[in-house]
Amino acid sequence: MFTGKWNALILAGGRSSRMGRDKAMLDWHGQPLLAAQVRHMKAFGATELRVSGDYPEFLGIPDRQKGLGPLGGLHSALVDASDGCWLIVPVDMPLLRQAHLIPLVKLMETSAAACYREHVLPMALRLDRHVRALIDALLAQASGGRSLLALHHRLHGSTIECPAELLDGLRNCNTPEQWQAICK
Ligand SMILES: Nc1nc2c(ncn2[C@@H]2O[C@H](COP(=O)(O)OP(=O)(O)OP(=O)(O)O)[C@@H](O)[C@H]2O)c(=O)[nH]1
Questions:
Q1: How far is the CA of 104 from the centre of ligand 1 (A)?
Q2: From the CB of 21, is ligand 1 less than 6 Å away?
Q3: Which ipTM score applies to this complex?
Q4: Is 70's C-beta closer than 6 angstroms to any atom of ligand 1?
Q5: Which of 1, 57, 62, 89 has the maximal Cβ count within 10 Å?
């Protein structure tokens, strides 16, 4: 049963190789980007909040096994989490707003997963025994299958169009150039 409550997991354990420095620690209006995302998710109404990645100051949960990508991070961080709706949010989308997240949460009434057509993250996931077993099975596969997109497909997740006026907020920053553009 979906209660309308939602929890958030901020994924921040990537290599940031295209950025050349840790994306989570980029300065966003005087604070690390990860701190800003934590603040945003609390303000937007997350019931429980977790951080995936080796960030003790943010109670981050390190990956149990490195190199498994976002799906590996999700697995490590949610292994003992409660069932229910989890929004999986990347650290590198500082312009995300509540208006992007709530439509994904609402889809948990009817879907086990949901994301926007433009990006696999943010993704909403209705965590339960079945979804946990599927995540385990995907992680046991060769690298091609270990992705959030594979999880979304296997759950027959809903894919929705982002309204034009909100598209800008789905910009992420993988490179210094993208970061400069977002900071303007
Ligand atoms: N916990 C965890 N998070 C990850 C991992 N790989 C990527 N992420 C996170 O997932 C989101 C999307 O990752 P990408 O931007 O594609 O990857 P990245 O490693 O951060 O950047 P690149 O090295 O440039 O590909 C970001 O918020 C990353 O921090 C991982 O292995 N573990």
A1: 21
A2: no
A3: 0.98
A4: yes
A5: 89
d(CA 149, CA 146): 8
Q: What is the pLDDT of residues 75-102, one digit of tens each?
A: 999 999 999 999 999 999 999 999 999 9
Alpha helices, DSSP H only, in the chain? Answer: 33-44, 69-78, 98-106, 129-139, 148-154, 176-183
Please state which CATH number belongs to domain 7-183. Answer: 3.90.550.10
Any ligand 1 atom below 6 A from CB of 122: no
- What does the pLDDT look like over 29-75, one tens digit per residue? 999 999 999 999 999 999 999 999 999 999 999 999 999 999 999 99
Confidence class of residue 2 from pLDDT cuts 50, 70 and 90? low
What whole-number distance in Å separates Cα of residue 88 and Cα of residue 73? Answer: 10
Handedness of CA 148, 150, 151, 153 (dihedral sign): positive
Cα 106 from chain centroid (whole Å): 16
To test the pocket of ligand 1, the residue of 9, 10, 16 to mutate (highest count of ligand atoms within 8 Å of its CB) is: 16
